[in-house]
Amino acid sequence: MANTLLSIQVIPRTPNGADSIPYVDEAIKVIQESGVKYEVHALETTMEGELAELLKIVERMHEALVNAGSPSIISQVRIAHHPSGISMDKLTEKYRP
Q: CA 2 to CA 30: how far, in whole Å?
């Protein structure tokens, strides 16, 4: 079982005030390619895995945004770390139909 949930909202600055959504899509693509369990929500994406692995994904997300042309990125990150295990499904099961 995973020991960490990490939620991230990336806020890339874009060249010439361009729409940020294509940049956010690039960041989400990094998560998709990582193979970790994740859920995309309206204002953030939550990943489930091991702490070190998830932090490396955050680093790769920033690298991808810079490579896509973003001159700077602000990320808001929340981490729930439980060495004994944690999962999105377990935390939210009572709210699902």
A: 19
Q: If you ran DSSP here, which 8-state letter would residue 50 be given? A: -
User: Residue 62 is encoded by which pair of tokens?
Assistant: 């920033």
Rounded to the nearest 10 degrees, how much is the dihedral formed by the CA atoms of 83, 64, 28, 7? 30
The residue length of the chain stands at 97
Percent of residues in the chain assigned helix, strand, coil, to nearest 5: 45, 30, 30
Residue type, 19: D
Look at the pTM and tell me if it is higher than 0.70: yes
H-run or E-run covering 27: helix 21-34
| Averaged pLDDT in 10-residue chunks for the chain of 97 residues | 96 94 97 98 97 98 97 98 96 93
